[in-house]
Write a structure and sequence with these properties.
Layout lengths: L15 E5 L2 E4 L4 E4 L2 H4 L8 H13 L10 H12 L5 E5 L2 H18 L7 E5 L8 H7 L2 H4 L9 E4 L4 H7 L4 E6 L2 E2 L5 E2 L2 H14 L2 E5 L23 E4 L10 E5 L1 H4 L15 H14 L4 H22 L4 E7 L2 E6 L3 H10 L2 E2 L1 E3 L3 E4 L7 H21 L7
Helix pairs in contact: 2-10, 3-10, 11-13, 12-13
This protein binds pyridoxal-5'-phosphate.
Pyridoxal-5'-phosphate (PLP) binds next to helix 4.
């Protein structure tokens, strides 16, 4: 018989009762080091006093009013995101998929407003992940997620990631925009090279198409910059972000230049919950931490330190591990054994991780983790890898 909670996930038999920083506690007192952070979402970790107090206070005042009225918390969050990014204007919504849907609508609408209504197609990349709505399944293009859900939504083309020749060949008279993750998360923590991102910007300008970044996972401080594309010193025309922006409270955002945002006139796009006082209070509390002097530099430093330790770990366990990839605190550890086995071995060491494509173990801890948390993570992964090497000596053959 089907479970009352619809079984769309293979859930680990673990339930957490409370958390503190990078640690989660079960009711029976076990303590897990959380390097999954709710899939790169609990950016301030668990039980962050500032975030908790802000949400509790706002919840008691007013949670939701609708976008028929001014929402000062949303105005403030938008002003701050504009002040710290390429964007001139921000639309708030509730999730990554919803942000990406809005981003695609904006790119099409901006082309139409510029007198090019035939430009509707969006160029996407192999290995992309943009969410689970019908249109974003098509933008994602992964057969595994599309199967059984009917025809693909039209308008999305795919080319190989980090391949500029393919991009230039695929841009046509009907291309409205390019949608790309500066770092692909889901398919294995694949970093878009600086050169690739810069050349995407050049090609977009040359062909009159819009450049849209999906920073749902790699944005909001994850890489040690507020947004990952800042590493390449270029700016998109429009960008989606979500996951970490609310520190675990559901919130998404589309950031855009005036040229892209302005055609979205009153009534042309909407959302009931998006940008409500409670969600935007959470967003402001997260930003309070991210914008503290030195905080993002600390993320960069911790990321580098963790990366060096993981490189050494991979070198110590060549039969089990096959190198490290990623940027800041968005790291991937490629496994030589099936990655689910590596994840399970880490879980036996009471450490939580997320798997990704290409047999990669994703390490996306809370941005507030301490140096001791990092060291503890490496120790636990070391024990996990050793346990696997002991039971699978044959893996050395690969
Ligand atoms: C998680 C993710 C999404 C989808 O976000 P949801 O909040 O699950 O809808 C989209 N794009 C990227 C890059 C993601 O990592």
């Amino acid at each position: 018989m089907i479970s009352p909670l619809m079984p769309t996930y293979n859930r680990a038999d673990l339930a957490f009762e409370r958390g503190e920083g990078a640690w989660l506690y079960t009711a029976d007192g076990r303590r897990f080091l959380d390097f999954g952070a709710g899939i790169a979402t609990s950016s301030l970790g668990h039980g962050h006093p500032g975030l908790v107090a802000a949400i509790a206070e706002q919840a008691a005042r007013v949670m939701h009013v609708s976008n028929l009225y001014r929402v000062p918390q949303a105005e403030r969050l938008a002003e701050r995101l504009v002040a710290h990014s390429f964007a001139d204007s921000v639309f708030f919504c509730n999730s990554g998929a919803e942000a990406n849907e809005g981003m695609v609508k904006m790119m099409r609408r901006a082309q139409a407003a510029a007198g090019r209504p035939e430009r509707t197609r969006i160029l996407c990349f192999d290995g992309a992940f943009h969410g689970r709505t019908l249109a974003m399944l098509s933008a994602t293009g992964n057969e595994k997620y599309l199967s059984g859900f009917g025809e693909r939504a039209p308008g999305f083309d795919h080319v190989p990631f980090n391949n500029m020749n393919a991009v230039r060949d695929a841009i046509g008279p009907h291309t409205a925009g390019i949608m790309v993750e500066p770092i692909q998360g889901e398919s294995g923590v694949n970093v878009g090279t600086t050169r690739f991102l810069r050349e995407l910007r050049e090609a977009a300008d040359e062909y009159g198409v819009l450049l849209g970044f999906d920073e749902v996972q790699c944005g909001m401080g994850r890489t040690g910059r507020l947004f990952a594309h800042e590493w390449a010193n270029i700016a998109p025309d429009v960008m989606s972000t979500a996951k970490g922006i609310g520190g675990g409270f559901p919130l998404g955002a589309i950031l855009a230049t005036e040229a892209v945002a302005a055609p979205l006139t009153p009534g042309s796009h909407g959302t009931t919950f998006g940008g409500n006082p409670l969600a935007c209070t959470a967003g402001n509390a997260v930003l309070d931490v991210l914008l503290q002097p030195g905080f993002l530099a600390g993320v960069e430093r911790k990321g580098q330190k963790l990366r060096e330790a993981l490189d050494a770990l991979a070198a110590r366990h060549p039969a089990v591990l096959d190198g490290v990839r990623g940027q800041g605190l968005m790291l991937g550890l490629r496994s030589r054994v099936p990655v689910a086995e590596l994840q399970a071995a880490a879980m036996r060491e009471e450490m939580l991780t997320v798997t990704a494509g290409d047999n990669v173990l994703r390490l996306v801890p809370p941005l507030v983790l301490t140096d001791e948390d990092c060291e503890e993570a490496v120790n636990r992964l070391d024990r996990a890898a050793r346990a696997l090497a002991d039971v699978r000596p044959m893996a050395a053959a690969s």
